[in-house]
Amino acid sequence: MTFVRNSSTLISWISTGKLQQTVANCVEVTGIGLHSGKVSTVRICPELAGEGRYFELGSKVIQASIDFAKESPLCTTLCKDGHSISTVEHLLSALEATGVDNCRLEVETSDPHHPFSFEVLPFHSYRTFKCSPNLTQYSQSGWLNGIGGLKPD
């Protein structure tokens, strides 16, 4: 497989069957987790076509897939090999709505009592980000304004 990396643009010369998008560059958000009340940091980083969306929790990786969903009250939780990440529905919905097919989601937590339990920030914590698709590019604020008329702070 041949890839060309030019600035923040990632191009695969092998067709995946559909045009795919990623974010133009890394975006970092730090805030208070909705359910835990603990400080969390989420970095949304570009990824190659075909890689999908996945969470990176230190050295552990959990694909954003129904295969890793577990029953939990009030939120969607993904779990793999004893590591879990909660409240993923807000971020994953925003990525789906904006057409971001591929990205690495790095998550850090400040909770020393639960080092393998992470929480994504609530949806309203995410500012705008710019997509880097193969053909189309969204405006920085267009995705947020297009979902229920929300406006960035």
Automatic annotation (TrEMBL):
Pfam families: LpxC. One of its GO terms (molecular function) is UDP-3-O-acyl-N-acetylglucosamine deacetylase activity. This is Probable UDP-3-O-[3-hydroxymyristoyl] N-acetylglucosamine deacetylase 2 isoform X1. It comes from the Eukaryota. The gene is LOC104249557. GO terms for biological process: lipid A biosynthetic process. One of its GO terms (cellular component) is membrane. InterPro entries: Ribosomal_Su5_D2-typ_SF (IPR020568), UDP-acyl_GlcNac_deAcase (IPR004463), UDP-acyl_N-AcGlcN_deAcase_N (IPR015870).
